[in-house]
Write a structure and sequence with these properties.
Blueprint: H1 43-53, E1 58-61, H2 68-81, E2 85-90, H3 100-115, H4 118-127, H5 133-148, E3 154-159, H6 172-183, E4 194-200, H7 204-207, E5 220-221, H8 243-254, H9 258-270, H10 276-287, H11 292-295, H12 297-307, H13 313-324, H14 336-344, E6 347-349, E7 356-358, H15 361-366, H16 369-375, H17 378-397, H18 399-502, H19 508-626, H20 631-650, H21 654-674, H22 679-691, H23 695-708, H24 713-725, H25 729-742, H26 749-758, H27 762-773, H28 782-802, H29 805-816, H30 823-835, H31 839-852, H32 860-869, H33 873-887, H34 894-905, H35 915-934, H36 944-960, H37 963-974, H38 982-998, H39 1002-1013, H40 1021-1039
Parallel strand pairs: 1-4, 1-5, 2-3, 3-4
Antiparallel strand pairs: 6-7
Helix pairs in contact: 1-2, 3-4, 3-5, 4-5, 8-9, 8-10, 12-14, 18-19, 19-20, 19-31, 19-33, 20-21, 21-22, 22-23, 23-24, 24-25, 25-26, 26-27, 26-28, 27-28, 28-29, 29-30, 30-31, 31-32, 32-33, 32-34, 32-40, 33-34, 34-35, 34-36, 35-36, 36-37, 36-38, 37-38, 38-39, 38-40, 39-40
Length: 1041
Amino acid sequence: MPSFSEPDSPPPALAVARTFGEASFYVAGGTLPAAAPSYITRKADTDLYEYLRAGDFCYVLNTRQIGKSSLMIRTVRKLKTDGAAVVVLDLTAIGQNLSAEQWYDGLLVMLAEQLRLEDECEEFWLEHGNLGPLQRFFATVKEVVLPAIGDKTLIVFVDEIDSVRSLPFSADEFFAGIRECYNRRVQDPVYNRLTFCLLGVALPADLIQDTRVSPFNIGRRVTLRDFTQAEALPLAEGMGKGGRKLLERALFWTGGHPYLTQRLCREIARENCETPRDVDRITERLFLTKRVLDSDDNLSFVQNRLLRSEFPLADILDFYGKLRGGKRMKDDETNPLCGLLRLSGIAAVEESTDLLRLRNRIYETVFDGAWVRKNMPDAEVQRQKQAAWGAMMQVGSVAAAVIAVMGFLLVQIDHTARAANRAAQEAQRQTVRAEGQKRRAEANEKRANVAQEVARENAARAGRSERAAKRSETRARQSAVQEKQSANRARIGEAKAIASRKIADTERVRADASRTTAVIAKNKEAEQRTLAERRGREFQAQKLVAEKQTRLAERQTIAANVERARAENETAKTKVALGEASRARAVAENERFKADTQRKKAELAADKLSDNNRRRIERLKVEMAANPADAKPAAELAAAYFELASVYDYIDTVSKSRENYAEAAKAFSALLMRKPGDYQTLVQRGFSYTKIDRFDGAIADYSAAIALEPKQMGNYLNRARAYKSIGKYGDALQDLARVERAEPAQMDYLLRGQCLLEMRLYEQAVEAFGQVLRLRSANPSDEERKYAAEGHVYIGDTRRKQGAYKEAYAAYTRYQEFYPERENLYRIRIDCLLADGRWTDAVRDCGLFRQRFPDSGAVFPWQAYALLNLRNEAAYRVLCADAVAKFGGADATPQNANLAAWTCALGERGLSDYSAPIRAARSAIAAAQAQVDNGTADATDPLGTLWNNRNTLAALLLRAGDYKQALRELEACQKMPRVFSPDNHFSDRVLLVLAHAKRGERNEAARYLRLIRSTPPSADVETRVEQSLLLRVAIAAVEGN
């Protein structure tokens, strides 16, 4: 089992300890946990529950992050408590690059798994292959699922319904099928026990082209509205004594928007706010800064939904601008721009007036007039300016004439203007519809091409399976022919017996013998017929097995195709990034070459200086001995050591640097004996003490220097660094505060943030690191920019300590723009994704890591964790094959060989043949044993790597079915004379559970499982994910036996 130290943040970032995120009263983003105290019950909760109980078809179509998923989860639980059979079909889990048959089969598999009817549904699906996929799906529901659940009602939630827009075929018939289930209730009462609920970010018109078969016409819309002040009152409980007053101010900004409200309330509670002014300050920091559209997912979604729509951008912004300007606008279902504003979330509908309005003050402030002007296409801006200028000129030139005829033309102008407005609106709607239809047509054409290619591949596979089935059928037919011939011979014998009976008077004895022969032949015929029937049944069973295997192969191929499509998409996305990285690499190589050249020159200079200084130092020591009171040789000696230490410090020769700083400190001490209280000497000795980690001495010297020169802020700064090094963070912050007041330009905000981070004052730390990001000069150098970028990595470290992994990932990504070649940056980002359970994103980033660092096997196990949590076995098998091909040979390093081997051991059926990774694991063990034998192993844990590699071998033997040898390896691991961590114990014990369970030794397996459950969870994210994965398998092995 591979063991990694926590990937460090790039220097000089602090190493980050893994901690679980602290439980919070508020939950901002994602589905609220079942027991979340901050869940707000709204009218929609009651409506959806009552409608579905009554058997009504329902749909919840609205913008993101307003509580759809949380509403669904709670409704599912209540309905299950009532005794209903409830399933949730997440359409994004099926994929998009599929044929219609694959898609409906994916729906059925998901439904069957939740109801534990996999085999029954699979058999019905295969037996009715003559039906179309839609008919087969609904027939399986009716003929298999509904009878299997007894008298229960089946309620199907279809989540992420908007993903049907990305399918390579029309989903109209799916919605038509749902409507047909509703219509058949009159003729067939069984359909009264089946109902659907659709959820997503879409309009009905976006999902179905033919409104005549739309289920939305017969369904009930459930509207999720923002929190009212009365509904939101429970949120005040998490803000302490003055919670109601603070909540009222929060709602002033958010308008009751669920995500914005939860997030703002969480920050109010974290910072212990007391006044509405504090709420305003936090609101400004969270939502109203210049870069908020890059950092906040919700605001970014609103912007992208508006700016990247299929409708003309000028029309969208013009329409939105009118709403901002106060124009009263009805929510017109036929106007797609109204729907766009609602789905983006920027506009809501007043229930009493049916008028559109801006949703809240945060949106109104962020997406203001300046934002509209900035994003308005240039041609439209120019047209509007010209129109305004032309209007002004016309008013000036014809004002008198207009006044003269105003009374006469007023009525006509009014009628004409209204007609023109109606025509313009209709023209606009027609234009928008035409554009949308054109884009949908192009998308459908692309989907058709993809579907055709997928169909060709599936047809080829089906052909191969069909030919195999036909060969089996031919063999069965040959058997049937032989059986028929035997039956014919039996009938001939029976005819002979009848003839014999006619002459029974003369040959009775012979007739009896013939009759006996006929009976025997008839019995043989019956036996042959029975045999033929049995072989026919066997053929049918073989055929069914072959079809099931074909279906399984198709599913695996589908999964592989989906994964390949994702990988190709990510590859396309990363080509640009790789191109930019190549340029950055070239610049970095150039800088590295310059640095190497300078370092070599410095090394030569250091060697030369060392030779010169050696003679000089010996001379100065003689002079000091001869003249003890003379300060000059002591000062020169200290300067010589200090100079040499600085050079070695520059070329990063740590041991020689420390050695010379120690000698410099001694020399400065000798000088102070000759010149007590010398300011410059105190400062230099303090600096030397800092370099050799004698921080108490450094603090004493800087304090003495401050007493002599209290206005020199550099001494406060250096003393603050020494305080921080010994954990006196409060003292360090006091010194930094003095520096900030007196010399803001010298202020080290990075140091302040580090102290606050160690004190767990996370938000204050983030604020300090944010100061680092602000460049102080108008034309900063590259070095200044890189120093400023350090703020991003420290913000990432802080957010990780808080458990805010999404924000940490974003911060590290910004830092990566400056350092694209730092390997640990990629690893620490993957670490955030794994900790946050973002498995698909983790797979993507692991792929990027492997492309950029092909000689490292570090992330192969991490990618395996993500794929196995996604239950994507096909992609996991591909990964195992890649790992063995890359690092399973003799030329691989022992570490990479062990990583590849462990990757293959993590899941079942990763490989059909485990001999290659077993060889790689044995090779890694031999290398580790050699290090132990020759004394080159890690001095802190000499047997650690050897244990690690033997643990991996045991896991591989277990997967290969050699349970006896696996147990021997595990017993050898446990007997090693070393100190075992709880993580080490977990690794051995979980494999012991599996080995004993496979051997049928249930009591032993259960004993080790109890030991595992008493083991504390790992502090390391990757290990914690791995433990969760293996524990799930161990529990199934013991409790499933």
